[in-house]
From TrEMBL, chain A:
Subunit field text: Component of the GINS complex.
Keywords from the named record: Chromosome partition, DNA replication, Nucleus
Subcellular localization: Nucleus
Originating species: Hydnum rufescens UP504
Gene Ontology terms: cellular component: GINS complex
Protein name: DNA replication complex GINS protein PSF2
GO biological process: chromosome segregation; DNA replication; double-strand break repair via break-induced replication
Domain (GINS subunit): residue spans on this chain: 76-176
SUPFAM superfamilies linked: GINS helical bundle-like, PriA/YqbF domain
Family: Belongs to the GINS2/PSF2 family.
From TrEMBL, chain B:
CDD domains: GINS_A_Sld5, GINS_B_Sld5
Domain DNA replication complex GINS protein SLD5 C-terminal: 186-232
Name this protein carries in UniProt: DNA replication complex GINS protein SLD5
Residue ranges occupied by any GINS subunit domain in the UniProt entry: 72-155
Function: The GINS complex plays an essential role in the initiation of DNA replication.
Keyword Transcription carried by entry: no
Region of interest called Disordered, as start-end residue ranges on this chain: 1-27
Localization per Swiss-Prot or TrEMBL: Nucleus
Record-linked Pfam families: Sld5, SLD5_C
Family: Belongs to the GINS4/SLD5 family.
The keyword DNA repair is annotated on this UniProt entry: no
Length: 196, 234
């Protein structure tokens, strides 16, 4: 009741978006004049068109929705960059490097500021391809699961959230299965005895 | 004491390693305020993900509430003042928007703890270490909640059972049956190392975590590191 059941297993995608909007910053070109503003998270501005200024993502989308700014999308949110990423993702065995909250940032920007992103439809399509390539890799990673540790370089926030239920469950089951095989305090499984 | 988290250690931006590079001047310009919100966010995410109840982060919560209150007072003063300009009014709207976001964060943190306190009330009351992790009001709530629940069980069912079967504080036996709900410390957790640190694994091995590395590890292996702020949940 204090925490609704749907929120208990992990953070929700909406909450991840909330975190990204608080923690990530982005450049905007303001379309209005205003002095510096002091917020709890910091001091931003001054807003003097056409000078660029860097603000938290939530502030950027808030101003954008009021048509008070243009958002400058990050370098990686472009057709050229994503094209190269998709190729790299398909060719390589490992996950390629991306901003940790790329999925959230891309979603927020495509929802609110698609007119500031060049070829937004193509960008959307490439992000989907990237996501599928990475998802397939994440699923393969499930076979490497050990009862004590899995190493997951370059995995992003949204992807972790997506695989969390299966991975955590799988690890729990593996732990139960192997529990009887390790003698207490022992380092290896030499004495492969199973009680019961 | 452990509370206060990583105060006194070198400040570390919690932001993602792959995010857009920020220049140093701007980073220094931001004062301590941002670190406070980032800290609260980290504690919130840790609390949401870990099976166990973590140490109450009273300092950060109080600091955040103080900031919110100071800001609310300032906003009210400005709103009552007829000389406040149009620009100032727009600024107030933005300040209030942010305040609502911060309030959500504080509320969700408190609610998450409340949920765990009610779920593990009996266990918390039995275990001195757990009691120490709660704030004064949280502990009072845990005790009242547990007393209510016990009284209710007794009056509705237990009083009809033989004396030997009425106990509500039986510890879990080998088969995992018991009346006290405990957190499952073997549960896997997605974590990221905030600095280089060693982890002792349940199978006896030791692993050196590199800064920024992401792993899936059972909670019991990183419980202490989480409390020190050496690792964070994802």
């Amino acid at each position: 009741m204090s925490l609704p059941p749907q929120l208990r297993p992990s953070l929700t995608p909406q909450e991840l978006e909330f975190i990204a909007c608080n923690q990530e910053t982005i450049e905007i070109i303001p379309l209005f004049g205003m002095d510096r503003i002091r917020l709890i998270s910091g001091i931003y501005g001054p807003f003097v068109p056409p000078a660029k200024t860097r603000v938290p993502l939530w502030l950027a989308t808030n101003l954008k929705l009021k048509m008070k700014c243009r958002i400058i999308p990050p370098e990686w949110l472009s057709v050229d960059y994503l094209n190269a990423k998709v190729e790299e993702e398909i060719a390589a065995e490992e996950f390629s490097e991306l901003p940790f909250r790329y999925a959230e940032i891309a979603k927020v920007l495509l929802d609110t500021a698609s007119d500031n992103i060049q070829q937004a439809d193509k960008v959307r399509f490439l992000l989907k391809e990237l996501r599928e390539a990475r998802q397939a890799k994440a699923r393969k990673g499930l076979s490497r699961i050990d009862f004590s540790l899995v190493d997951l370089p370059n995995l992003c926030a949204m992807e972790i959230n997506e695989i969390r239920p299966y991975f955590v469950k799988a690890m729990g089951v593996m732990g139960q299965l192997t529990a009887g095989m390790h003698p207490p305090g022992g380092g290896g499984g030499e004495g492969m005895e199973i009680d019961n | 004491m452990e509370d206060g988290g990583d105060d006194g250690r070198r400040p570390q931006p919690v932001g993602s390693p792959g995010s857009v590079p920020r220049d140093l001047d701007r980073e220094l310009d931001r004062l301590d305020d941002e670190r406070m919100l980032d800290k609260l966010t980290r504690y919130w995410i840790d609390e949401r993900n870990s099976p166990d109840i973590l140490v109450w982060q009273g300092l950060v919560v109080e600091e955040t509430l103080d900031k919110l209150q100071a800001q609310a007072e300032m906003v009210q003063k400005l709103q009552e003042d007829p000389r406040t300009s149009e620009e100032e009014h727009f600024r107030i709207v933005l300040i209030q928007t942010e305040a609502e976001r911060v309030k959500f964060l504080v509320r969700s943190y408190l609610r998450t703890r409340l949920h765990k306190i009610e779920k593990y009330a009996a266990y918390i009351i039995q275990t001195p270490e757990m009691r120490g992790r709660l704030s004064v009001t949280e502990l009072a709530h845990a005790q009242k909640y547990h007393a209510l629940l016990t009284a209710h069980f007794h009056s509705s069912a237990l009083s009809g059972l033989p004396e030997s079967m009425r106990s509500l504080d039986d510890d879990e036996d080998e088969s995992g049956r018991g009346t006290v709900t405990r957190p499952n410390k073997a549960q896997g957790l997605f974590i990221r190392a905030r600095r280089r640190c060693p982890v002792s694994l349940p199978n006896g091995g030791i692993l050196e975590l590199e800064k920024g590395a992401i792993h899936l590890i059972p909670y019991e292996a990183i419980e202490a590191l989480l409390r020190l702020g050496d690792v964070e949940c994802l």
